[in-house]
Every structure is written in C-alpha cells, then in structure tokens.
Amino acid sequence: MSTGASAGDLEQRWLEMIASGEAYPAETLLPLFEQLQPVDTEFMLGTWKGGKFDGGAEPDPINWYGKRFNSTTDVEPLLVLDADGKVKTFDKLGGAQMREIKYNGVTSAALIYDSQPIMDYFRKVNDDVVIGLGDIKGKPTDFVFHLTRQ
C-alpha cells in the first residue's frame, strides 16, 4: 500500500464508509481504491449484493441488487429486486464475462459487459467485500461501488 496505512486500517475505513450509507466523492474513494489488493476471477465467483457511495441521492430506476459471477464466461452483471422482493436478472444490458486485467499497474479481476462499452475493476477489502470501479467508455472512470458476498 502506497500511503503506509495498515491493511486493517484500510479495511476498517471501507467498512465504516459502507455501513454509513453516506455519499463520498470520487476524490475520496479513488485513492483508497488504489490501495486495495487485487483479486482473481475465482475469488469473484458467486452472488454479491451491491451498493453505491451516493448516500441514496441518485435515483435507482432498476432497483439494483448486485451481480452474479457464475464462471469466467457467464456473469449476470445486473441483478435487481422485482416487485415481490425476489432477485432476478436484469438482462436489458446483456451479459458479461470476467478476465484479469491490468488497471493502473495492478492486475485484478474485471467484469466486461458483452454488448456495452463498460468494464468494472475489482479490488479486495476482505474475503467478503470488494470495491468496484466502473469504467464506461467516453466517461470519467470515477463510479465506485461495493459488493458483499452472499
């Protein structure tokens, strides 16, 4: 880690920010993201519940739940809650796959949408929490979100 903060301090900081539900600007989140350890694609397998660092200010028209990583070639990038509160796949943006990709000098698992110019890079907070960084072609790479293993 580049700033000398211990791994435990960094983990605690992320967990506190997630638990707070408050909004945090990219200027706060991006340097912390860069300090996190990489993960491989096998680590990401399973269902993850997602959340954003927007303090609930952004409308959520699809009622986003999270992501499901079935294999490196079969990823459901958008899970949503239906009207009955059941998790289902939101397939209007298509499926995705996983690869290990280098971003800012660190090779880690990344989600690549099949039909959208979007990639999500992942870094590890602990064995059950990762932070994602959304990279949408033509837009700033500054959308940070969290996933918790289910």
Automatic annotation (TrEMBL):
Species this protein is from: Halopseudomonas laoshanensis
Entry protein name: DUF4334 domain-containing protein
All residue ranges annotated as the GXWXG domain in the record: 32-85
One Pfam family recorded for the sequence: DUF4334
Residue span(s) of domain DUF4334: 94-149
InterPro entries noted in UniProt: DUF4334, GXWXG_dom
